[in-house]
Amino acid sequence: MSYTKTWLNYQKLANCPAEIAVSLAEQGPVAESIRRELELAFDAMYGVKPVFADTVKDAALGVTFCCDAACGLGEEGFRVEAASGSIRVVSGGQRGLLYGLFAMLEQLRMGKTDFALEKIPSNPLRMLDHWDNLDGSIERGYSGKSFFFRDNEMTVTGRIRDYARMIASIGINAVCINNVNVRGVAAELIAQRYREPLIRLARIFEEYGVKLFLSLNFASPKRIGGLDTSDPCDGKVRAFWRERIADVFENIPNFGGFVVKADSEGEPGPFAYGRTHADGANMLAEFARPYGGIIIWRCFVYNCQQDWRDTRTDRARSGYDNFIGHDGEFAENVILQIKNGPMDFQVREPVHPLFGGLKKTNMMLEVQIAQEYTGQQRHVCYLMPMFREVLDFKTYCGAENDTIADIVSGRTYGNRSCGMVAVTNTGDDENWTGHDLAAANLYGFGRLAFDTSLDPEEIAEDWIRLTFGLNEKVLGNIRRILMMSWPAYEKYTSPLGIGWMVTPHTHFGPDVEGYEYDRWGTYHRADHMGIGVDRTPAGTGYTTQYNEPNASLYANTETCPEELLLFFHHMPYAYVLSSGKTIIQHIYDTHFEGAEDAAQMLALWRELEGLVEPAAYARAEERLAFQAEHAKEWRDRINTYFHRMSWVEDEKGRKIY
Ligand code: GCU
């Protein structure tokens, strides 16, 4: 199947230099990628094949790559200086040169010739997690099938190299290729069966500075090792892991480590043997350490067998409750992977309190660009503004360096194992991401993970120019669509921090009570009088998991940020918000507005007919039209429900079914 070039869509530029000389002394797989990319890019941009030479003095455009361990930029940082036809890229390592190369190409493509850039990545690990299954399906995947697996075999095709180029160009340096739910033959990824294609895959990733990770099944000693236990303290189990882990690291080049979902949503873990998460993670870490390997242990652990009558048990509390007591117990090469919020990638959640709580543990921020709960790549929902808010959140874990960006970059506690990871949104669809505009989330995540100080709107602008070219109208309209998309989605789906009003299992489309009486612990507790979950000390006590002043701020209805009011409090429909509107009127208004926003996004896109490549135009047009209709369904289902619950009329007398 053919596929699009996304933001690596190199187009012919004006003012082509007559000849281009490149000096690059480095050898090795990454240096080879730099050479290949230069040839590809300069041919497409200028129709010129670069000449590789020791000196670049006489060429119309001369590019010098300089690897200098003493440059102070580290192995992944870079400096690019371009003036009067001469460009110099400096880094302490080849990966930094590769990132510098892509940064240079971006500038040239955006019409700049004289510029200076210097970047050192904010986060040591900048990772993508694929939830790909070995049969080729993708859990919560909305852009086709896996390009790693098909029918229980691996598929190492030409597309993998393009994927590696694409993610390296935005600074991603780690990828986990299989679902965190390790089912069926996936447990055998650490055994011989998939060894040869994994080696081929890892070599391609290595050429682009990307480390390969695998998700493993904690019960592998029983599943594939023929043992009668998977107890992490059992001698035979330890021997199994020592041998398996050594074998993987010794044979798969550039291997990074393992991702583990344990004791979560039915996945096996150390609890079954009366052991702790630390016991489980540290045992694996011990055997990975000699190879510089990392164990990424997920904190998405909660009771998924709740009864809706029980108002004390709170799923939001569980991540913190399960892990806070083990702060300081985890080995140096273990990272706890924590979702941005305490529930599960809803359109609006408070920031996970573990980030402000853990002080002696490596942490990584997990976000989801697959849009499971935010429109599944059929609705546009540009998530960088949400991630920006998360990164800027002050946890008050200390006097300074206390934001999420500080913590996950390692600044706060001086740790080197930490970073950001996204559950990714790619598949084998022609355009990689189903919705053409969803590629902005992939591009944006990489850029933001590399530089956590970036402005979401500027990231969006770069992505638009690199994908669709430099037309101002195209830039303006797509920027507006992207920037209004997350607020719009929130407006027509989720009032004031209430999530989960989705169709059970698929998580797509409205179903206000779909999860209300289910066992997953995801309640909005709407009744005739009011709505929301009391998470104050008088309720579930969740607010106490935050440091002060956040704990009091959230616990008090007067100071609680209104966008999260119903996440933290059960409130009467008649409560008056700072806008002067009651909660019920706010629900009606935002749902009408959100649906109008969706219609406006479609109209903005339609103005671009003829200005955007026809196939991409048509694909996105179809999805935006769907979104506009679907937003009306969301509006009507939610407004009708709350109208019937509250018996309060809409002040504006609009049609509520
Ligand atoms: C969500 C999602 C699951 C996934 C889980 C996880 O609950 O719906 O499909 O397995 O998150 O993050 O582990």
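^ alpha-D-glucopyranuronic acid complex. Residues 139-140, 180-181, 261, 265, 300, 344, 372 surround alpha-D-glucopyranuronic acid (CB under 6 Å). The chain has three domains: 6-119, 125-455, 492-533+570-646.
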